[in-house]
Amino acid sequence: MTRRRRTALAAALSLLPIGQPLLLGTLTGTTTATTAVILQAAPVFAQDVSAVARIAKAITVRIEGATQGSGVLVKQEGNRYTVLTAWHVVSGNRPGEEVGIYTSDGNEHQLEQGSIQRLGEVDMAVLSFSSGSAYEVANVGDIKKVKHDQPIYVAGFPLNNSQNLRYETGEVVANAEVGIDQGYQLLYDNTTVAGMSGGVLLNSDGDLVGLHGRGERDEQASSGELVMKTGVNQGVPITYYNLFASGAPVVVAKNTATTADDYLAQAKASQSRKGREQTVIKLTTQALALRSSGGGYFLRAYAKKKLKDYQGAIADYSKALEINPEDANTFNNRGNAKHGLGDYQGAISDYTKAIELDPQHALAYDNRGYSKHDLKDYQAAIADYNKAIEIDPQYAIAYNNRGTAKDDLKDYQGAIADYNKAIELDPQHAFAFSNRGITKRNLGDTQGAIADYNKAIEINPQNAIAYNNRGLAKSNLGSYQEAIADCNKAIQIDPQYAGAYNSRGWIKYLQGDFQGALKDANKALAIAPNDGATLDTRGLAKHALGQDRSACKDLKRASSLGYQGTSQYLQSEEGAWCSNMR
């Protein structure tokens, strides 16, 4: 009855079809590698993408300091160059600390000490370096000409491959005039990764129209049931740099939203705040009333999914697909919503479509594996997890999920190896620690299991599953009161956690408190009426209380639902009283 948690249903929320990343040259010391260009962009971008890529390569720099990020050359005065970047890229650097700035020729330049300056209250900063080499600087574009659905290009240096410039095509989702916290008024659907913050946003002419700031990030619910990317990217328009360059105060306007773009930008800003799903729904609904857009439906679907309004999310994802019928990410996310309804075959169909549209979609492979796992097709699930890892060897979630499938196949050593790898890649992966604890318990290493549960709780004190599992492990040691205390904590964190009620009921059964066990099992079944483990607990409690006919009904139902412990019990001499009952 130990509860395990796979890291489930990663959602990629880029809004339109995109091509493969364009890798533009390697920056290693003072050497420059041959440029590798891979173009698979949508036809609308074909005319300009190569020329814009060349500009991006020339003007984008890599910044290596307390935080790695990207920047853009915006000004030259003699041998002195000014770099524009995101404030959060350089804000962690202490005075006097060295910062390396790598230009397109591979050369490293040292930061001019004291030159870092934030631009007012927005997420932009400038810094300087000196060099006798000649470098191209950005041509500043007209932000007012940037409209929704127009092509936009983002470039920067990813953390996992920092020597190659990553270049992605996409479209503008919104260019708001309403003031947004830290200036994040520009929304776009390009695929971005960590390390690209501070990178360029270019229009079709290769002009600088903004700075990439906040990319899609993975968000994991405390229950572990969901890993989603939070939506479209956010950038700061070049307007604020223009104000700084002219000597004017750099402040965010306090005006009122009036356009669809304004409402979408406000919705995106609200999305990052916990518990603001209804606000996101309200703002996106206002935006959609003014203009139908894939971005609007996408953001609203995300909020509905967070609220577990799966039907509403599916409806909005379907609307987004009417606008962008070849968007792999929308199929992936609609699959997540279908999974939430228990429609695993429908989810698999959507994930498969996402993979057809984008064969490198690691998230879709992982999610499809997750749905196959829930259908108990463990080998097929492992095959999909393998593919996700082949595409992205740094994908800790897929290692964790593959570990759970191996555990179900009783390949405990293989499971532990996968959990170890997930933890190596992500030392804060609470569920990998919790899951490793389960496998250690299966191997009889109860103390090792408790140590892993302790670590999972240390990382995430709201991890109800880890409390539940630790309670069960403590019950193995006979520490029943401590075990019940852990189950109580799990229920306090998540009052709808059926498994924790069942665990507490089972521990009470072990103590001989059969009425208490029956009461907890009833609570669990009110939440999850088809859980075989809980039916087993209730059946055994009823049997202990002399309610044999009702008990046998529960046990036979648990067996029919596939709960192996009950099936083995009914086939044993101990369970003959029920198996022989008519």
UniProtKB/TrEMBL annotation:
<dbReference type="Pfam" id="PF07719">
    <property type="entry name" value="TPR_2"/>
</dbReference>
<dbReference type="InterPro" id="IPR050498">
    <property type="entry name" value="Ycf3"/>
</dbReference>
<feature type="repeat" description="TPR">
    <location>
        <begin position="498"/>
        <end position="531"/>
    </location>
</feature>
<keyword id="KW-0802">TPR repeat</keyword>
<protein>
    <submittedName>
        <fullName>Uncharacterized protein</fullName>
    </submittedName>
</protein>
<dbReference type="GO" id="GO:0009279">
    <property type="term" value="C:cell outer membrane"/>
</dbReference>
<dbReference type="Pfam" id="PF13414">
    <property type="entry name" value="TPR_11"/>
</dbReference>
<dbReference type="Pfam" id="PF00515">
    <property type="entry name" value="TPR_1"/>
</dbReference>
<dbReference type="InterPro" id="IPR019734">
    <property type="entry name" value="TPR_rpt"/>
</dbReference>
<dbReference type="InterPro" id="IPR043504">
    <property type="entry name" value="Peptidase_S1_PA_chymotrypsin"/>
</dbReference>
<feature type="repeat" description="TPR">
    <location>
        <begin position="396"/>
        <end position="429"/>
    </location>
</feature>
<dbReference type="Pfam" id="PF13365">
    <property type="entry name" value="Trypsin_2"/>
</dbReference>
<dbReference type="InterPro" id="IPR011990">
    <property type="entry name" value="TPR-like_helical_dom_sf"/>
</dbReference>
<feature type="repeat" description="TPR">
    <location>
        <begin position="294"/>
        <end position="327"/>
    </location>
</feature>
<dbReference type="GO" id="GO:0046813">
    <property type="term" value="P:receptor-mediated virion attachment to host cell"/>
</dbReference>
<dbReference type="InterPro" id="IPR013105">
    <property type="entry name" value="TPR_2"/>
</dbReference>
<dbReference type="InterPro" id="IPR009003">
    <property type="entry name" value="Peptidase_S1_PA"/>
</dbReference>
<feature type="repeat" description="TPR">
    <location>
        <begin position="328"/>
        <end position="361"/>
    </location>
</feature>
<keyword id="KW-0677">Repeat</keyword>
<feature type="repeat" description="TPR">
    <location>
        <begin position="464"/>
        <end position="497"/>
    </location>
</feature>
<feature type="repeat" description="TPR">
    <location>
        <begin position="430"/>
        <end position="463"/>
    </location>
</feature>
<feature type="repeat" description="TPR">
    <location>
        <begin position="362"/>
        <end position="395"/>
    </location>
</feature>
